[in-house]
Amino acid sequence: MIELRNVSYTYPNGVRTLDNVSLKIEHGEKVFLAGKTGSGKSTLLRLLNGLIPNFYGGKIKGEIYAFGKPSPKNVFFVSQNPEEQILTNVVRDEIALPLYGKIDDVKGKVEEVAEICGIKNLLNKKTYELSDGEKQLVTIATALASNTPCIALDEPFSHLHPAIAKEILNLLIESDKTIIMSEHRLELAKEFDRIIWIGNKIKDRIVTRKKDEWENKDEKIAIKINSISYGYKTKLFDNFSLKVPEGKIYAITGKNGSGKTTLLKIIAGLIKINGVEVNGKTSIALQYPNYHFCEKRVEMEADERWLKLLGLDKLKGRHPHSLSGGEAKRLSIAKALNADIVLLDEPTAGQDYEFRVKLLEILRNSGKTVVLATHDEKLASMCDEVVSLGNDSKIF
């Protein structure tokens, strides 16, 4: 069992993240942590296995019980940055690491877990040769192989394709371990026994909702496409349907000419067609950003909030058409963010890796409904859903 009694925590820099928090989690319970960035989700998970204060320092008040004293022996922590917690050079050794001295058949257990997690083909690979997604799968497999009664996961699916994330989630839910997971993909919460909301107001910081109460919550649909068919010489859509809930991020993928940009234009109303319902103000940023600019200065094109978040605040006095290609792309995105429903066509083209991650963070924190067309598989893998267009158009 896990229990926090009147727990408060202050980081070494003086920032208080949790204030007088109390909660109880039973053995074997599956709990989902929800809340905005900076609300204290990661802090709470780190408290449970002793990373706080043993590694991060700071001051704790109150009592914490996590199957005994907070320790990695009781709570296996899966970081959102798998790179920083992999310790060995070979995948097989990494998964085996927490098993030595605990069980007799270490090799058999490693093979079993790798098979279940679908990474048996990675067992003999060097850990430094893995992609970020593969590293994430290895750390989750290591957690499942360990004999800890609890696994605490901090954004464990950020580098995984949504279809793979759902498969791994099923393994976690079906395990006999206590699972506590922080994730921004709120639709995954439906699989959990309870949702713990960590809010902005200290007095409302911990609010729980049972699984059945969550499942009965009405989901508002921002975009609804009912069995449309469209195409001039080539039929791009034949009896195509799509629903996008409010606040979700959907990626549209497919080969060149499969209809990605056309679909965005249909949603935006640039192409008029029956069977499309859009609930909210819509804005689109197409591949060629300069087509969107009509003002003399950058600061006149978009709100200051978005300019700052996208790193354009120092360019406020510049003429939009004097920007580099990458800067112009960011400005077109900032301009699109003024709407309720944001449509982005190849938003990471000409951008560095850091921007890809930063953009997803900005979009999630905005709370807006986002549909983006992309060839960037990494970007697509971090979205809530992926819609693949082509001869076998599907959502997975």
Describe this structure in words.
This protein has about 400 residues and is an alpha/beta fold. The protein has two domains: about 1-215, Rossmann fold (3-Layer(aba) Sandwich), CATH 3.40.50.300; about 220-395, P-loop containing nucleotide triphosphate hydrolases (Rossmann fold), CATH 3.40.50. About 25% of the residues lie in helices and about 25% in strands. The protein is built from twelve helices and 18 strands. The strands form four sheets. The protein has a six-stranded mixed sheet, sandwiched between helices. Strands 14-15-16-12-17-18 form a six-stranded mixed sheet, with helices on both faces. A hairpin with a 5-residue loop joins strand 17 (about 385-390) and strand 18. Helix 4 packs across helix 5 (about 130-145). The longest helix is centred in the middle third of the chain and has 14 residues, at about 130-145. The chain is globular, with a radius of gyration of 23 Å.
